[in-house]
Amino acid sequence: MSQIVRDYYDSHAEQEWYRLNDPYSQVEWLSTLRLMDRYLPDSGHICDIGCGPGRYAIELLQRRYQVTLFDLSAKELSLAEERIGELGLQAEAYICEDARNLQVLDAEIYDGVLLLGPLYHVQDRQERINIIRNAFRVLKPGGIAMFSYLNSWGVLKAGVTEFSDSYRDPEHIYMYLQEQALDENQGFTECYFSIPARALEEIELGGFDVVSYAGAESFLAGMRAEVTRHYNEDRQVYDHLVQAASETSEAPQYRDATEHLLIIAQKKPESEQERA
What we know:
Layout: H1 3-11, H2 13-19, H3 25-39, E1 45-49, H4 55-62, E2 66-71, H5 74-86, E3 93-96, E4 110-115, H6 125-138, E5 139-151, H7 152-162, H8 170-174, E6 180-182, E7 191-194, H9 196-205, E8 209-215, H10 224-233, H11 235-247, H12 252-255, E9 260-266, H13 270-275
Parallel strand pairs: 1-2, 1-4, 2-3, 4-5, 5-7
Antiparallel strand pairs: 5-9, 6-7, 8-9
Helix pairs in contact: 3-11, 10-11
């Protein structure tokens, strides 16, 4: 990833720590935790690639997993180490490196891999596939990986309330019907928006079997203002909506049109690889 992306996360480390506390982002948070609980192995070694300030890594450590944190941003990684230490937890390792350089990790040493962010910023398709193949390489046979993509279709929907002025140009509407790469002047930093079929294809080209996929925001996608209003005005309604959304994130009628696409994939056990 470019220096632009590194600088963005270095300067937004604290903001990234608090981002998932936002009433709307809580939907993404709870959906992701639910998928982790459902699909990750019950124990073992997890590599959190693109760990940011360590929010998910902390959850895993509290569940007694052994966790390696891997991130592009030295500031994010330092904050993660600080917060983990404050909680009396201990990670296996902290690695400051670009996700395109996963070859620094040994093969077949992890029971699970999280890749919940780096693919947002890799604009070259072959580089994304190489990252996925390296995630496959570092997993033990039978291991589970969780990948996250920014979904252009979900961003289109969110834009109706969040940046509708840009839709004065109808081309800005139709461009979200396909994958696209944006520079730092068009997006929050350099970023890549995929679409579901393309993302699923890349995971399979990386060697994985897709187990399931989800839309993190489920039926609440694009409703930031309304979700936040319920949070402020009627916490019971808010809690019920967020709970239901997290429980239905894998539902086909919702998952293709959310901002964050979550793909759960498996490296086949060796016996199945031989039969294939």
